[in-house]
Amino acid sequence: MILFLQQFINALSLGGAYSLVALGLTLVYGVMRIPNFAHGGLYMVGAYLTWALLSTLGVPYFFALGISAVVMALFAALLERVVFYPLRAAPHIHPMIAAIGVLFFLEAGVQLIWGPDFKPMSSPFGGVIQAAGLTITGQRVLIIAASVVVMGVLYYFLKRTLVGSTIEAMAQNREGARLVGINVNRVAALTFGISGALAAIAASLIAPTSLVSPSMGEVMNLKVFAIIVLGGMGSVPGAIVGAFLLAFAETFGGVLVGTDFADVVGFALLVIVLVIKPQGLFRRTT
Amino acid sequence: MTNKLQQAAVSNTAARRNVMQSGWPWLLVAVLAALLPQVIHNTYINDVAINVMIWSVAAYGMNVMLGYAGLLPLAHAGFFGIGAYAVGILTLKLGWNFWLAWPVGVLICSLLGLLLGLIAFRTRDDVFAILTLGIGVIITQVINKWDALTGGNDGLNGVQPPQFFGIDMGKSAHFYYLTLVTLAVVIFLVARVRNSLFGRSLIAIRGGEDLARSAGINVYTHKLRVMMLSTGLAGLAGGLYAVYIGFLGAAVTGPATTFTILLYLLVGGVGTLTGPLLGTLIIRVLQQSIQGLQDYQYIVFGPLLVVLVMFFPAGLAGIWTRVQAARSARIGQGSKEVQDAGV
To answer: What is the pLDDT of residues A145-160, one digit of tens each?
Structure first.
C-alpha cells in the first residue's frame, strides 16, 4: 500500500510535467495545424538554459526558471516567424520536415556548446518530506504544485481574457477568426511563445529529478506526441488526460514489464488506442 | 524560316526527352559505375561508393512512400535495422547462407510493413507521421533491449560477408558489384512501378486521397502495397549493410538515420527517379569532407533541411526539371506539365 501510494505520487508529478509540455504542443497544433517536431528541442534547450544559469552564474532557482521560460518563449516565437510562417501555404509535409530539421539542429547545437554528457541539476527543493510512512522528495511536490498553478493560469488566460480567447477562436475556426478581425499571424506567434515557455518551465521543473542531456528532448518529444495523439490532436483537456494516462501507464506498467521497456509502454498504449479509436479520445470535430 | 528552326528545336528537345525516358542515360551511368573499380584502384573511393549505393536503396524505399504516395514514413530506419538484424541473426546464430537470409529478411520487413500499415493507415497525415515515428522508436528500443536475440547494447559482431560460387564477396571490389547490381535492379523496379497503373494510382493518392477514392482507386490496398514495397527496400538495403559493415548496433536503426535518409531525398528531389541517388551521393561525399564535424554535422544539415523545404522543395532534380520546363516554354512549347515536381 505504501509502495502504491509512493508510485501514485510519482505518477502525479510525472503527469503534471507531461501535461505542461503536451499543452504547448497541442495549442500549437490547434492553432497552426503543425505537428511541431521541434517541441522536444525547445524543452531540452529550456532545461539547459536553467542548468547553465544555476550552475555557472549562480542565479536562484526560480529566477533561472523564469528567465529560461521568457527566453524560450521569445525563441519559439522567432522560430514561428522565421520557419513556420513562410511555410504556412506549403504542402502539409514541408513544415513537418522543417520541424525535424530544427530539432536536430538544436540537439547538435547544445551538444557542441555543453557536451554530450549527462549533467545533474540541483534545486533548493532537494530535501525529503516524510509523512505517514511515505518518502517524497520536495521537488516532486513542487512539480505537482507548480503544474497545477501553471495549468490554472493557462485556463484563466484561455477562457477569461480576450487575448487568450483569440487562441481558442483560431483553433476552432481559422477563417472565422480572421473574419471577426483577429490578427491570425500575431496569434500564431503568441501560441508558439506560450508553448516554448511551457516547455521550458516543465523541463526546469523535472530536470532536478533526473538528468540534463541533449537526448532528453527526443525522448520527451515522442512521449508528448503519444499524449496528444491519445487525447486527440489540438484538444486541451485531451492533452491533460492523455498526460496523466501516460504517466500512470509508465509508472505502473513499468513495474509490470520491467524498467527496460518502461519507455515503450506509452507507445504500446498509443497503438492500442489508435487501433480501437483512430481519431484519439477527445478529438475536436471540426 | 524561324518557324522551321523552332520546330527543329522542339523536335530536338522532344527527342532528348524520349531518350531520357527510355533509360539510355541510366545505362551509361551503370556502365561507367561498373568500370569505376577497374579504372580506379582506390579502396577509399570504393568504400564511399558502396555506402552511397546501399543508402540509395534505402532512399528509394522512402521515395516510393513520400515521393509517390505522399506519406511521411518515419519508421524507415527501423525497417532498415530489421532487415540488417534479420541477416545478422540468421547467418550468425542459425548459420544460414546469406543468399537465403537476405531475401528472408526482405520478406520479414515487407510482412511487418503490412502489419504496421494495417494499424497506421487507420490514421492520416500528421497522426500517421507521429505513429510511424513512435513505431520506429519501439523498434530501436526492442533491438536495444532484447539482449538474447540482438546482443542488445553490445550489438552483433562478426557478420560474415557472403560467398558467390567461390568468389569472396567480402573483398571490397567484389562487394561493389553486388551493391551495384542490387541498386540497378531497385532503380529499374522503381521506374517500372512509377509508370505502372499502381504508380499512377499512388500519385493520385498523393494529390488527394478523397479524390483518388472517388475516381475508383482502392486507397487502402494501394497504401498497404506501397508500404510493403517501401519497407522491403529498406530491408534489402539493411541486409547489404549488415554484411558490408560486419557489425550491427541499435543506434543505426533510430530516428536520426530516418532523418538522414530524408535529407538525401530532399537534396536530390522527392518523387523523382534520379533524386534519391543524386542526393545520397552529394550528402555522403559532403559528410566525408566534414568528417571532423561528425557529431555536429546536424548543425549544418538541420538548417539545410529547413532551407531546402522553404526554397527548393523539389530538390536538385526539381531544379533541373524547372530549367527544362522554362526552356521548352521559351521555345514556344507552351505550358508543359512539369513532371514529378516534388511532394
So the answer is: 999 999 999 999 988 8
Please report whether residue B202 resides in a domain: yes
Strand, helix or coil for residue A136: strand
Mean of per-residue pLDDT scores for chain B: 82
- Maximal C-alpha separation, chain B: 78
Is the pLDDT reported for residue A267 higher than 80?
A: no
- Interface contact B148, partner A, CB < 8 A: no
Q: Where are the domains of chain A?
A: 19-214
Residue B326 lies in a domain: no
Q: How far apart are CA B319 and CA A239, in angstroms?
A: 42
What type of residue is B213? R
Q: Which three three-digit cell numbers place residue B153?
A: 547494447
Separation CA B212–CA B54 (nearest Å): 33
pTM: predicted TM-score of the whole model, two decimal places? 0.83
CA distance A145 to chain B (A): 30
Nearest CB among B119, B127, B145 relative to A233 is that of B127
- Number of structural domains, chain B? 1
Chain B residue at shortest CA distance from A92:
B125
Whether ipTM exceeds 0.90: no
- SS3 assignment for B62-86: HHHHHHHHCCCCCCHHHHHHHHHHH
Instruction: Please report whether residue B302 resides in a domain.
Output: no
Alpha-carbon distance of B341 to B272, in angstroms, equals: 8
B325: in domain: no
Question: In terms of residue numbers, what domain contains B249?
Answer: 34-254
The answer to whether the CB of B84 falls within 8 A of the CB of B247 is: no
